Structures are given as C-alpha cells and as structure tokens.
Amino acid sequence: MKHYIETKKYGQFLGRYIFNLKQYFGDSEQRRNIGGRLLLEPKFPFDHFQGKRSLDIGCGAGRWTKTLMLLGAKVKSVDVSEHALISTKRINNDVEYLNLFDIIKSRPDLHESFDFTMCWGVVQHTHDPKLAFENVAKTLASHGELYTMIYAPGQHDSETIMNQRKHFHKNLTTIEDKLQYAYDISDCPENCINQFDMLNTFYNWVVPEEVIYKWYRQNGFENIITLNAHQKEKSAFHLVGKKL
Q: 106-134: per-residue pLDDT in tens?
C-alpha cells in the first residue's frame, strides 16, 4: 500500500499553494485532460455505474470514490492510511481500514461481492504486485469488472526518475523542501501531487503489459482492454477486464 510522510503536515503546507485551474487554463481541453484522462478509449457510458456495488481499493483522498458515486455507484472505500479514510469519509460513509493482502486470507465477506472494483495506482506500490493483484481480483462477482492502473516500464524505472527519487530521499529533509522539489519537477503546478506517487512510495514497480494481461487471465477475467492503448508514451497501463 501507499506510504505517507507526515500527511497532516503536507496538507497544512499544501494549503498555502492553492492553485486555481480555471484561471490557469481557462476552459481548455488541456485543463480537462490533466493526468491524461481524455486519452482513455473506449469511454465508459455515463450510466455504466448506475446502481453497481463498487469497491475503491487504496481510495486515497477519495477522488475515484467521489467520481463513482456521482455516476450512481454504491461505493465501499478502503485504504491503510488514516488520513485517507478521514478525507474520504467526508463524501462516503462506507469507509474502512483494509490491508489488501488480507482479502484472500481473512475477508471472505469481500469475495466475489462487487460489480466493479477500482484499483488505481496501488499494486505497484506493494511488496508483491502479483499477490496484490490476486487479492484485488478476488473481490469481483461474476461479470464484474476490474479497473487497474499499473506503472509501465520506460518512465518510472528511467535514470531520470531514479535520480529524482535518490535526491528526494537522500538530500531533502524538510516537508517544505520536498514539496518545493515536487513543484520544481512538475510540468505544471497542479500536477505536483502526482509526483508523490513516484517520489514518496517505498516500492515503485513497473510491470510489462503482457504480464498484467496474464494476471487478469489467470484470475478468471476475459474481454481485457488496455484503455490507453493508443497513447504514444505510456507511464502506466490502464486496463479493465470482466470476470467470467
């Protein structure tokens, strides 16, 4: 799971760097595509999640929980971070502390229980991505869908990223210095927060696309799709598959 460094202090410091996206980008496509969201194909229809029992594993601050709820899903949000659960609790009453590695061995109530499971940027930050995937996959009911975002080779294991991580952990000692460094290496200010997935986490695996497909098939999924297949330079693979 994700590792957090003094999350409360980060939150207090971030408050002094509030950035108005609309003022910066106006109503442009660039603002709508922060994080590459417009690169995913095919798009889910708006009614796709209506009434579906959904699980957000590693919910973080709750961005995907909120999105799923706005699209009509009934969402359970889980994480290992106390601060993540406090944040998500503001928008969803169904939140719970959960180490995803406990799903198979001690949480039968979660087995084959969900129509849709979201696991965005989580398994690559664990000590065993394959086992993490297997635990996540166990939550899907028949015909349920699993959406994963997993780092792709090429960027996160590049010399540049490795040197940035080394500098972040070896040379920067204060919250202010670490946050400023994340701003300095971001392509635009609102993407600063994304740098911490790369810089702050203890594990930062990359997984080839064919290996992720194999994981899906081994866990009983079909109709597996890479949603960003046409993206030229992939920092991550976005995949969805349907449980048999």
A: 999 999 999 999 999 999 999 999 999 99
